[in-house]
Amino acid sequence: MQLHRIAMPVLVAVVSASIASAAALVPPKSPSTPAAPTQARTPVSPAASEATESALGTAFTYQGLLRNGGNLAQGNHDFTFALYSDSTAGSQIGSTQTALGVAVSNGFFTVALDFGGVAFDGTARWLDIQVRTSGGGAYTPLLPRQALRPVPYAMRAVNGASQWSNDANGIDYLGRVSVGNTSNAGAKLQVDNGNNNSQALYVVSQNGPWAALVVRNTGTNGWGLYDDTSRYHYLYGNLGVGQSNPGYPLDILDNVGPGLRILSTGTTVSGAYPGEGVRAAMFVHGNTGTGIFGANTNGIFASSDDARAVTAWTNTGWGVDGNNTGSGCYGVLGTPNEGVFGYTPNTSHPAAHFLAPTGGTAIMCDGITKTKTLQILGGSDLAEPFDVARAADAAPEAGSVVVIDPSHPGDLAVSTTAYDSRVAGVISGAGDLAPGMVMQSDAEHAHGDHPVALTGRVWCKVDAAFGAVHPGDLLVTSSTPGHAMVAVDAAHRGGAVLGKAMTSLERGRGLVLVLVSLQ
């Protein structure tokens, strides 16, 4: 017997099948959305008069075309239908439906299937169909599984088995609901009143101990209420923040962190106290101590986009100080002896810490910088920036060996000659090893785009075709542009030594860690 599929309109889910017999099954032709041309093209439903009196149920009609070899099948056949969540694998949905003695006339057959309303929850479903001649032997599965079109889902919505469900308290819906507009993908419930002269949402309660509206966000750092559009907000009575029984128009209580944060884009306030003529978000006056309530706790944090975030005046003391009792570190802005002072009693904690993004400046000093010990953590070489000219077929890049460029005073060029006594260094930055210190000046012939390591450790491009390189070997320029090589000719290496190799390279070209030491 053979399976043959015909192209049909899309209104009815139709399957083409083959029956189990001595003949081999033939795979179906290219899939389409078939339907029997001589049958009704919508699912069988009760009459219109009955539809108003009883529910439609969850059954739907399924039709197919069965061929035996090249002929249309005839006679009675047995079918099984199973619902799956995938076209080839997946899980079975509900129980298997069995239809025995189904009449097949000129290849066409019709069955009623009912997997229940819960089987269709909006996700795709496929039918697994097996067939045999009535009373015959084993069933033969028909491949591939047949995709179900939206008809059963429409039945589910009509008969009431919709996405709404009942529980002990009312009805539930797990999707999104919109009133006055289409549903919003960013909101479970949306109420859109447009420009109507009425309230979009009105919530009333006459039971005092109970809130008229409760909003909770249990997520970490979640927002309870958010409004970035409205110009005005009106509240009558007392507002409690951290207070369940506020006694003032604004009553704030926070036993853990700061109780109030105020931001301002600039407001000039005049008053009897010094400093109130400047722009400030808030003025706090304490007669004793350093906190809002006169206690010895720091109670103010301030920030400003275009002016001083904190202004502190003193005649003999410190302007602003910050202390950490856990580490013992503290810092001061405005002491009698310096503008900024930092102290740490712990060798693991810095007295000052400045951060900047990659390529940014963490500290800028215009004047003399004094230090007892300077420890550099970013790299292992001392470099200066140079403009570097490219060779005929080699552009300057990290790891390239460079020489003094006689055509451009103060500049360098990519090396191209073996044992070149003009050797100047290696462009720093190869192998993820950044320059340790870059000395730069705005004077003429003292700047450029490439940091060149003049001393220290740096990864260097080496060509081992002129000889294998091992730790301790002297390196000189080679005829390979931008590459060094092992110095095997002692008579010519004088004044041309770039430095000493610290890693090996047996063959080919690659990077070698070099201790730059011009000789």
Task: Give the overall shape, derived from the CA principal axes.
Answer: flat
The CATH first-level class of the domain at 14-47 and 54-158 comes to Mainly Beta
Largest sheet: 11 strands, mixed
- Examine the coordinates and then state which fold CATH places here, giving the name of the CATH topology of the domain at 14-47 and 54-158: Immunoglobulin-like
How many β strands by DSSP? Answer: 28
Helix count from the secondary structure assignment: 2
Low-confidence stretches: 1-53, 272-278, 290-299
**How do the helices and strands follow one another from N- to C-terminus?**
EHEEEEEEEHEEEEEEEEEEEEEEEEEEEE
Spell out the blueprint of helices and strands.
Elements: E1 14-17, H1 48-51, E2 60-68, E3 71-72, E4 75-84, E5 92-104, E6 108-113, E7 126-133, E8 140-147, H2 151-158, E9 164-166, E10 171-173, E11 177-179, E12 189-191, E13 239-241, E14 250-252, E15 320-323, E16 330-333, E17 340-343, E18 381-386, E19 388-389, E20 401-404, E21 412-414, E22 423-427, E23 437-438, E24 450-463, E25 474-477, E26 484-486, E27 497-501, E28 509-516
Parallel strand pairs: 1-2, 11-12, 13-14, 18-23, 19-21
Antiparallel strand pairs: 2-3, 2-6, 4-5, 4-7, 7-8, 9-10, 15-16, 16-17, 18-24, 20-21, 20-22, 22-24, 24-28, 25-26, 25-27, 27-28
What would your notes on this structure say?
It is built from two helices and 28 strands. With 519 residues, the protein is mainly beta. Among the domains are: 14-47 and 54-158, Sandwich (Immunoglobulin-like), CATH 2.60.40; 315-355, no CATH class; 381-516, Head decoration protein D (Virus Head Decoration Protein, Chain: A, Beta Barrel). The strands form seven sheets. Strands 18, 19, 20, 21, 22, 23, 24, 25, 26, 27 and 28 form an eleven-stranded mixed sheet that branches. Strands 1, 2, 3 and 6 form a four-stranded mixed sheet that branches. The longest helix has 8 residues, at 151-158. The protein starts with 13 loop residues before the first strand and ends with a strand. Residues 1-53, 272-278 and 290-299 have low confidence and may be disordered.
